[in-house]
Amino acid sequence: MELSAQLAPFVKATIKNLKDMLGFEVNTGGMELEPDEFTSQGYTVLVGFTGGWKGRLILDMPGETAIKMASAMTGEPYSSAGDEEVLLSGAELGNIIGGNAITEINNSQPGLQIRLTPPSVFTGMGMTMFNARVNSSSLVVNTDVGPVKVNVAVEGAQ
Amino acid sequence: MRGIKADGTAITVMAVDDSPVSRKMIKKALEPEGFQVIAEAGNGKQAVELYASVKADVITMDVTMPVMDGLEAASAIKAVNPGQPIIMLSAMGDEDIINDARRRGINDICSKPFKPDEIIQKILRIL
């Protein structure tokens, strides 16, 4: 499976951080390319980027996965995906994954100077993600605590 | 306990990061080794203001923060005390940012996500 040049650094950074930072098992064999429109699994992190590329990264996962992710980051137990620290953990995870991916892109293409915008986190089942004026591509990374969808949209990308 | 100095006191840390979760992760990494996080700031401006009254042995400084970023804050603190050890701690580590950090006198750079042992070793190396 060949990933687009836009999606690949973000998938790589997602897998690295889920494994190395959070200690999750990642089943890369279960990765699947997804259509660019999708319905939220319940917990969504959005990080924009600007500079040489304009677009955004979405990490979408079930609320239970977000709770386990937050617990792995802080060492605290949580009961709800809407807990403030679970929301803050998702924002930080998005910032780290986005930052790692952007660093790789900036270093491989000097002059782009892509920078991240502050992350946002949404909770709620069934939100439809729709992109106007940009194409996006998605890939699901399966972990032992649930599926994490990585969706990247870049203005002008095919 | 690598966070305890020869005189028996703790190595003190100011954690500057706009993410409370990230500050919690810094404390989780350092405090079991005896380091003491004596001050926290949520942006560069707060860090500079806090630095007037709180002196820590080392400052961990995020880069991308609202109001004042970590690079500007590091410059302001180094202008007051050029000898203040500062470690940049950021998910953004491209060459432009690293070169800028070095020009501003930041002592070392640790990329997020960090492993506890990695940040501890960097702190001990610059003190």
Summarize it.
The complex is a heterodimer of chains A (158) and B (127). Chain A is α+β, with helices and mostly antiparallel strands and 158 residues long. Chain A has helices at residues 8-21, 63-74, 84-108, and strands at residues 26-34, 38-39, 42-50, 55-62, 115-116, 120-123, 128-129, 135-143, 146-154.
What's the arrangement of secondary structure elements?
The complex is a heterodimer of chains A (158) and B (127).
Chain A: H1 8-21, E1 26-34, E2 38-39, E3 42-50, E4 55-62, H2 63-74, H3 84-108, E5 115-116, E6 120-123, E7 128-129, E8 135-143, E9 146-154
Antiparallel strand pairs in A: 1-8, 2-7, 3-4, 3-5, 3-6, 4-9, 8-9
Chain B: E1 12-16, H1 20-30, E2 36-41, H2 44-51, E3 58-61, H3 70-80, E4 86-90, H4 95-103, E5 108-111, H5 116-126
Written description of the protein model:
The complex is a heterodimer of chains A (158) and B (127). By secondary structure, chain A is of the alpha+beta class. Chain A has one domain (8-22, 35-154): CheC-like (Chemotaxis protein chec, 3-Layer(aba) Sandwich), CATH 3.40.1550.10. In chain A, 32% of the residues lie in helices and 34% in strands. In chain A, the strands form 2 sheets. In chain A, strands 1, 3, 4, 5, 6, 8 and 9 form a 7-stranded antiparallel beta sheet that branches. A two-stranded antiparallel sheet of chain A has the order 2-7. In chain A, helix 1 (8-21) crosses helix 3 (84-108) and helix 2 crosses helix 3. Chain A starts with 7 loop residues before the first helix and ends with a strand. The model of chain A has no long low-confidence stretch (mean pLDDT 88). The two termini of chain B are 16 Å apart. Chain B has one domain: Rossmann fold (3-Layer(aba) Sandwich). Chain B has 5 helices and 5 strands. Chain B has helices at 20-30, 44-51, 70-80, 95-103, 116-126; strands spanning 12-16, 36-41, 58-61, 86-90, 108-111. In chain B, helix 1 (20-30) packs across helix 5 (116-126). By secondary structure, chain B is of the alpha/beta class. Chain B has a 5-stranded parallel beta sheet, sandwiched between helices. Chain B is 39% helix and 19% strand. In chain B, 43% of the residues are buried. At the A-B interface, helix 1, helix 2, helix 3 and strand 5 of A face helix 1 of B.
